[in-house]
Design a protein that fits this description.
Blueprint (H helix, E strand, L loop, with lengths): L4 H7 L7 H28 L5 H8 L17 H14 L1 H21 L2 H13 L4 E4 L15 E5 L2 E12 L6 E8 L13 E7 L5 E5 L11 E11 L12 H35 L1 E2 L2 E2 L4 H29 L5 H25 L11 H13 L4 H13 L5
Parallel strand pairs: 1-4, 2-4
Antiparallel strand pairs: 2-3, 3-7, 4-5, 6-7, 8-9
Helix pairs in contact: 2-4, 4-5, 4-7, 5-6, 5-7, 7-8, 7-9, 7-10, 8-9, 9-10, 9-11
Bound molecules: 3-thiaglutaryl-CoA.
3-thiaglutaryl-CoA binds next to α5, β3, α7 and α11.
Length: 398
Amino acid sequence: MTHAPMIDAVFDLDALLSAEEREWQQRARAFAQERILPVIEADFEAKHFRLELVKQLGDAGFLGMHLQGYGCAGAGAVSYGLACLELEAADSGWRTFVSVQGSLAMSAIHKYGSEEQKQQWLPGMVAGDLVGCFALTEPQGGSDPAAMTTTARRDGDGWVLDGAKRWIGLASLADVAVVWAKIDDPSFGGGDGGRAVRGFLVPTSTPGFTATPIDGKLSMRASVQCDVSLDGVRVDGDAILPGARGLSGPFECLNEARYGIVWGAMGAARACLDAAISRSTSREVFGKPIGANQLIQAKLADMFVEVEKGILLALHLGRLKERGALTAPQISAGKLNSVREALAIAHEARAILAGDGITNEWPVMRHAANLESVRTYEGTDEIHQLILGRALTGLNAF
Ligand code: TGC
């Protein structure tokens, strides 16, 4: 199914974009329509991660596209957001791939790595020859990284990591893991609490590193999330990320990924709205297309308004990001709104499609299922409400 162009025409988003931004958007839309959409329903059904697309995403310039140097495209925040939107209009799993590789793993190395670390990993990751993952969340719960139990202890010149991580995207495919752990060495900032958190670049071939894909997922089935165990994983002293000290290290990377979700979720929402419009004009009940009924038109209008508002908010946040003025609470407002509205739109579209909406002839139920993951990772709705609540009141309710 193609995207209904009339949706773009009303607010004329194109007029707010530069030629370069429109080019990135068109390139991502073409990639999604030509490479992902033809195979995604079968891949989702078969729980198949299509590895060959990784290199193709690299060749098309989408991996770390918003970073500078090391072969990265150096695109603006809005261009990156538009790419996220178009990829997620096909499937949240593929936007997630681009986020984990570019906004989490590459971004951690780019922000905090030594020059040697950047040279070692980034060019291969840009090209899609190397895959990275970001090991922050732990099995006891993802909302409170300060409570992490993974440790890194000094061992001669190196470090030994022990612990467990969960829901780590791409870990079983990855060449390198950015592992966040608490250190015990005061000369490196170790001690109690979140300030002892440091990042380590761990080649996944290191003995003691094990990644096991999580089975039984009813969401994002065409992508890979893993349990990771770190059992006496010994790395050299120069595996530590020199520029990241404390929890602000991983949180700055989460900001990048959450920003991509603000855009991406609106792609899933747009795809669901497209499906609802298409079926409203092709399906007849009581002798006329269902779209000729006022009840259906009211639903379509409300869905459309939320898609447009969400994209305009994403664009506003993108412009702030390009000026270096985007704050964490603003990102929380965007992530909360985009995912919440996208889920509501997916559910409304499913109802409009009636029985068709529960089959994989239409993408709606897949998007709805995927969005449950997107709602949960990178900060749940409730975490973002509490971040906003803290910003509004000055009171910490965590
Ligand atoms: P808090 O006291 O607020 O802050 C601790 C330090 O971190 C700084 N900070 C931030 N810095 C940059 N950006 C942000 N958004 C930041 N938020 C906090 C803060 O300034 C402070 O720095 P410093 O230098 O003073 O020490 O920390 P807290 O423990 O009270 O945090 C509260 C809370 C709830 C906001 C935080 O824990 C949080 O955001 N929780 C949600 C975490 C989350 O999103 N987890 C999911 C990660 S997704 C994932 O790992 C898997 S999905 C990707 C995949 O597929 O692999």
